[in-house]
Amino acid sequence: MKLVRVADDRDGQRIDNFLVGQLKGVPKSLIYRIVRTGQVRVNGKRAKPDTRLASGDEVRIPPVRVAEREEGAAPSRGLTDRIGNAIIYEDKDFLVLSKPAGIAAHGGSGISHGAIELLRALRPNDSIELVHRLDRDTSGVLVLARRRAALTGLQEQIRENRTTKQYLCLLQGKLPRAALSVNAPLRKSILQGGERMVRVEDGGKPSLTHFKTIELYSMAALVEATLETGRTHQIRVHSQHLGHPIAGDEKYGDAEFNKSLKPYGVRRLFLHAKHFGFELGGKTYAFSAPLADDLAVVLDKLPAAKGKK
């Protein structure tokens, strides 16, 4: 058992993320278990999974058996090399990836290693935290923080919708106008079987997406989507609401449309986070990632719209 005093730069951090930093290499499933079973205490009281720490708090951490540590196999060298090669920017505050599709932002739900776990394995002496998330099948800009102040500062910007986030997506058909906006509230729900779905529904959280057509094809349009809010699956659900779902979207998309695109190489959700910009501490940040190679190949193969060569 050890007692750890919370440093000033960890003020406000959730207990599970704090423990990840204290118990290097211990699977998150085990960390959640020792919290849920009351083995972790903050100032003498049992911690809850959503407990947030304050500077100066005293955290009691139980011993973790070596055998339990070995429950989670270390990631392969190939995976850590892949995530290392995906780093497009880093300084004392941030580390930014052009995240490959197929790698989740974080582990869980049957996924042993997400981007954050791979980076921690690659940089075991660094303190790295996810600032935001991307779906597993979404490629592009993913920002992580290397200092607590950078994490909380940027997350505050995100909550207040003061960042610029733009995506590229391939939508079914042709939008009714070259530029339009969808202002429709979104609500998360859990269906039988535990699958999470998001719906346009009165009483949901306010959600606003701007769509701008970049290129037309015979059966689809390449569209830039700019987020004014950052709700779960926002672009996917708003494009579905428009009647122009994203290519390759198995949850919110059109099955026949997806099938028709198989010959052109669509094997996953055609959604790419191309740009993330913000200002913090008097400095302007602007991160961009070129369209992923597998999606660029699709565009090369798609037939042009009528009247275009």
Automatic annotation (TrEMBL):
Alphabetic keyword roster: Isomerase, RNA-binding, rRNA processing
Keyword Transmembrane helix set for record: no
Per the UniProt entry, what is one GO biological process?
Answer: enzyme-directed rRNA pseudouridine synthesis
UniProt source species: Tahibacter aquaticus
**Active-site residues, Swiss-Prot/TrEMBL:** D135
Question: Which Pfam families does the annotation name?
Answer: PseudoU_synth_2 (PF00849), S4 (PF01479)
What is this enzyme's catalytic activity, as reactions?
A: a uridine in RNA = a pseudouridine in RNA; uridine(955/2504/2580) in 23S rRNA = pseudouridine(955/2504/2580) in 23S rRNA
Superkingdom to which the source organism belongs:
Bacteria
* KW RNA-binding (keyword) present: yes
Its function?
Responsible for synthesis of pseudouridine from uracil at positions 955, 2504 and 2580 in 23S ribosomal RNA.
| Family under the similarity heading | Belongs to the pseudouridine synthase RluA family.
Which PROSITE patterns does this chain map to?
Answer: PSI_RLU (PS01129), S4 (PS50889)
- Specify the RNA-binding S4 domain's residue ranges: 13-72
What this protein is called in its record is Pseudouridine synthase
This entry's Enzyme Commission designation comes to 5.4.99.-
One GO molecular function term of this record is: RNA binding
